[in-house]
Amino acid sequence: MIRTTPLKRFIYCLVLLSMGCTTSLDAQYHIREVSLPENLQSHAIYCQLQTSNGLMLFGTSEGLYQYDGWRFDHIPGDSVLSREITAVFEDNDGTIWVGTLTGAIGRVRSGQAAGIEPWDIEEGHPHARINSILRDKSGILWIATYGEGIYAWTGNRLYNYNQDDGLPAEEIYQMVQGPQEGVWVGTDLGLIHCSFSSNHKWVRTLTTGLGLPDHIIPAVQVLKDRVWFGTFDRGFGWLDATTQQIKHATPTWSGGSIASMLFFTPDYGFIGTADGGLWEMNGERITPVQFSPKLSGKVSINQLWLDKEGVVWMIVNEQYIYNFLPAMQRWEHSLGDVQSMAYLDLDSIYFGKVDGLAIGRISEAGNLQVIREALSGSNVISLYTDKERFLYAGTFGQGVYVLDPKFRLVAHWDESTGFLNGSILSITRQGNYLWFATLAGVTRVNVKSGNLKEPEIKNFTKAQGLPSNYIYQVRTDHRGRLWIATDGAGVSVLENDHFIHYPTAILRGPNGNDTLSIGNVYSMAEDDQGFLWLNTASNGIIGLDIMAPEGERIDKKVGTNENEISILSWSGAHIVMVDRDGVEAFHPSSNSITYFEESAGIKDLVMNINASWNDGRRGVWFVSNQSLFHYQETPAIWFQPMPVIKEIQVIDGGANLVHSNRFGYEQNHLRISYAGIWFTEPENILFSYRLLGSDSTWRRTRDHQAFFLNLDPGDYEFQVKASVHGDFTSSSRASYNFVVGKPYWMTWWFITLMTILVFALLLGVIKWREYVINQRSAMEKHQIEAELATIKNQINPHFLFNSFNTLAAAIEENQELAIEYVEHLSDFYRKILLFGDSQKIALVEELKIVEEFCSILQYRYGDQLIIDKQPMSQDGQIVPMSLQRLIENAIKHNEISRQKPLTITLFRKDDYVGVSNPVQRKWTTETSTGFGLESIRKQYRFLTAKPVHIHQFENRFTVEIPILTKE
Amino acid sequence: MAYWKVGILIIILVSSHQSTRYIISNGKIFFRSDAPLEIIEAQSEHLEGVLDISTNSFAFSVRNSSFEGFNSPLQQEHFYENYMETDHYATSTFSGKILDPIDLNKEGEYIVRAKGILQIHGVSQERIIKSKLTVLTDRLTISSQFTVPLQDHKITIPRIVYQKIAEEIQVTVEAEFKVQ
Predict the structure, then answer these.
(1) Which residues in chain B (28-57) have CB-CB distances under 8 A to chain A?
(2) Of A123, A148, A162, the CB nearest to B130
(3) How far is A165 from chain B (nearest CA, A)?
(4) N or C: which terminal CB in chain B sees fewer CB atoms within 10 Å?
(5) Could you tell me which CATH number the domain at B21-179 has?
(6) Is A352's pLDDT higher than 90?
(7) pLDDT grade, residue B116 (50/70/90)?
(8) How far apart are CA A630 and CA A623, in angstroms?
């Protein structure tokens, strides 16, 4: 790492006189123009806002637009709210408020896709341009107009502040939230504080009479307790809200009217003017800012704001959007190869070169000027300066030259004055001692005595406990301890005259703590968390936990060994690493790195280890072969890209945007759009996403959308990470949970219902079958019973006895008749056998049986029994033997004698056939089983719904049985 | 306490510039309380007012005891004695300035907002009230609707009739102005 230039001839020369301003190069911020979509070009851009999720909103003459670093999206509104948006504000709950040129007010409610909705209140809306909307610390929503003063919305009522309320002017330029409750506004007639409390409007006006340098206040900003005001032609200043003191910061201001302000700290910020471009206040100095590439013509900075990652944005000439990284400032130089530098203040910047020393300054106009040269011919490889303004220049082989505040050479120290070695690689100060790192150990010089010619010198080598005699760097930590970076043996600290060695780093590994040999350490930087960061030759950047007691120490390691880090320094919470590709600001607490490379206008850096200086206050200076750089930490909240999920679309014919996370089973084609918010380097954004529930592997892409088609029903989580350099290990992620619903036939309730239904159906079928079988068996039983009864009846001994008596009589009297009788009898029994077991019989057949039966009876009863068979239609069916049984029944229960012959009538009435007889009760009743009628009735019940009618009316007994229709 | 102020204002307005001054020739004020158990409506035709276009200022006044049309005489009595306390507070007024410019040379309808002090029940509240202003050749008409929260004017409702009286009363004003 050490430049191995050959040892040059010793030249002892006095300081050369100043050569005057040799170069005048402008301070430059690398500016980037945001390319606007065609429909926004040459239209007015009025206002801006970065939302809490990082998206940039712009109010334009064409409506409200959202920008993610990659694309502009229009946020729709009604005919009024889709044009001329002049104010935009994000409320605590994420509601976006917008105001228009014509005074209309609308809002976009978070989580709703409806776009901008009008804000309708009973009081109506203003009719003047809305310049600002905000909510103060007491929760009141304030609306500033250009022409109607200010409105305050307390949650249920709108109040107006105008001239009648003591507001000196009704044209409000800018309004900001106060350090306490209420708002501060800038007007043509002063700086005004408005508040609302105890149901009362309060207005307090500050104007020139009260110390305000100018009564026209176009710009206001609040930073902590200070209310900064930008005036029309007297520059800017601030009011201390607690002490009420007004301070005019620019007694001699020539920048014209101020239009916008952006202060980060009380002495660091940017000031935008109405036609003189941008100015920077840094410390006590206020300088015009030069940009690369240059902004030409009249430059009006209408709006100025800082985003979450520390990028400064500007709306220029109400038409263009620019941004730049205020962290990185650059001045080109023509000094050639600079090996070392030191910085005291803006007027005293020292550069050590191969052939001498150059003294430069940053002018009032912001230019880098070289004002003197000295030590001509000396190879200056290390430089040191301190508050006493002495300059110590370490050379390669020629020892140390000491220059007084007027750049006169006051001493030269080398081997002859007691140094071990004349090659001075590094210089630092510890109290009264100056320490020098040399190629033969470290040398300590006591500068307290003031005798610089022959100071007290003490050397430390291996003999005094150093681990190596080859020392690259000496540094003091915040406790004043001296640290030594060695060649090959890590670092050592000098504490109580003893060297404590740190040859190894202790790193937390997967299996307990690992020990890593540190080796060569080129440079060191301490952060504000108590870590000493080491730039090692072969182990990358190691952070030593120097505040922890030995034994409890856990160190850190950053990055890879890809690029050799040439400069390591710190700025606030950042460790600054410079390599060939650019600057990396490592933020230890979030473990993230911000890169400043081509997007910041940096490339091909050729650097020397000592060509940097930490000014201990605001940042790190470093110098390459072409440029001087100043890295300064800006207030940032984000240190890495923030992924944001922008919209979800269901692709089903017409792709429709959704703000839901439940989808039907057929809405299973999704497009998810996302962005990575990183305006520092928007072109290098890389994404990594996955869909949990479908596939858990991360997919890398540069696309801003992911498609998921044919998703199965289930729960999903879409996760996306963003990174600029492809390292996603510490990236934050955005996620979106959603559910693809099951089709109804797969839902539990449907399945349950269906199961129940199937079971019920099955049960029904079983029950029905059971019923039918029971029915059938019951019927069969009855039929058998009836048949049995019939047979029983017919072979009733009484009947047979009577029949045989009749037969006997007939044989005696008339043999032919007897034969006929027997034939009838056998015919009758044959028919019983034939039809007895069938369910139904044709009425015709039954009547034949009845006829047969009657002729048998006729033999016995002769004319005492009259069967009156009325003519009838003989279609239809009946239960077999039913008529026969009814006739038999009639004979059984009634007296039949010569005196009382019995007439049994057989008739048909519609669908019924009936048997009727007069009641002639017997004196001796045969025992009745009651079976006959009951059996007929039961048999019919199985066959038809029509009942069997049995009735006795005026001494007539009638049974009517239904005729069954043929099937 | 402030009715006399409004009275003076009316007098001042009436006695100022001739051509720019309009007074109410026909004014009605109507209110409606839409409570869960009862709707109460009443109106007064005794709305007085003056509007001065040169200064954009106006004043309206109505006698509280001129409201009629209640559901019952008892309700009217309650309104007068318990709520409005007409013995103590005889009038309700609204006076102030119109925020939006009016062009009387052009006939047509304008939405204008009036900022002023609304005094009811002796309690003053600053209000912005939106009205529809119709400019005709020989007259102006104003029509506006606004709500009056009873709490704002310290009109307390006994708990027992809470469900019968709304917390916010809807008020409608219709007035015709003629050049004086």
Answers:
(1) none
(2) A123
(3) 11
(4) N
(5) 2.40.128.110
(6) yes
(7) very high
(8) 9
How far CA A582 is from CA of A334, A371, A567, A597, in Å, comes to 20, 28, 11, 5
- Per the structure block, which two tokens stand in for A758? 């199937």
Chain length of chain B: 180
Query: In angstroms, what CA-CA distances link B160 with B44, B83, B156?
Result: 27, 14, 12
**List of long-range contacts for A529-537, beta carbons under 8 Å, 24+ apart:** A529/A573, A529/A588, A529/A589, A530/A478, A531/A555, A531/A556, A531/A588, A532/A477, A532/A483, A532/A491, A533/A558, A533/A568, A533/A570, A533/A575, A534/A485, A534/A490, A534/A491, A534/A568, A535/A565, A535/A567, A535/A568, A535/A577, A537/A1
Does A120 touch chain B if contact means CB atoms closer than 8 Å?
no
> What is the residue whose two structure tokens read 């009946």?
A878
Least confident of A402-411, A551-560, A901-910, B105-114: A551-560
Hey, are the CB atoms on B99 and A148 less than 8 Å from each other? yes
Give the pLDDT score at A199: 84
How many pairs of residues across A and B have Cβ atoms under 8 Å apart?
A: 30
The string of pLDDT tens digits covering residues A5-52 is: 322 322 222 223 233 334 445 668 999 999 999 999 989 999 999 999
Residue A192 has pLDDT above 90, yes or no: yes
Mean pLDDT score across all residues of chain A: 86
* A122, A127, A160: residue with CB nearest B115: A160
Tokens 């062009």 correspond to what residue?
Answer: B103
pLDDT of residue A496: 85
Give dist(CA A832, CA B168) in Å, integer.
Answer: 98
Kindly report the nearest CA distance between residue B3 and chain A, in angstroms: 20
**CA distances, A252 to each of A138, A188, A247 (Å):** 38, 21, 13
Which of B94, B111, B115, B151 has the most A C-beta neighbours within 10 Å, making it the best mutation to test the interface with A? B115
Q: Is A166 on the interface with B (CB under 8 A)?
A: no
* Option in A123, A159, A201 nearest B113 (CB): A123
What type of residue sits at position B7? Answer: G
Among the listed residues A369, A357, A292, the one whose alpha carbon sits nearest the alpha carbon of residue A333: A369
In this predicted model, what pLDDT tens digit does every residue of A491-522 receive, in sequence order? 999 988 889 999 999 988 888 888 889 999 99
- Among B150, B155, B124, B156, which Cα is nearest to B1's? B124
Residue with token string 């049994």:
A904
Least confident of A562-566, A747-751, B7-11: B7-11
- Report which of A914, A368, A212 is spatially closest to residue A904, judged by C-alpha positions: A914
For residue A4, pLDDT beyond 80: no
Q: In this predicted structure, what is the pLDDT of residue A789?
A: 66
pTM for the model stands at 0.76
DSSP conformational letter for A481: -
Residue A174's closest CA among A183, A165, A163?
A183
- Residue B16, pLDDT > 60, answer no
- On the question of pLDDT at A65 being above 90, the answer is yes
SS3 A884: helix
ipTM: 0.84
Which of A46-50, A502-506, A673-677, A795-799 is the least confident region? A795-799
> Residue A648: what residue type?
I
Cβ–Cβ of A160/B129 closer than 8 Å?
no
Please tell me if residue A160 touches chain B, with a CB cutoff of 8 Å: yes
pLDDT at A5: 30
**Minimal Cα distance from B114: which residue of A?**
A123
CA nearest to A275, candidates A258, A303, A308, A299: A299
User: By CA distance, what is B97's nearest residue in A?
Assistant: A164
Q: Please answer whether residues A224 and A240 qualify as being in contact, where contact means their C-beta atoms are separated by less than 8 angstroms.
A: no
**pLDDT at position A27, please?**
65
Q: How many other C-beta atoms are found inside a 10 Å radius of the C-beta of residue A386?
A: 14
Please list the residues that pair with B68 across neighbouring strands.
B43
DSSP state of A39: G
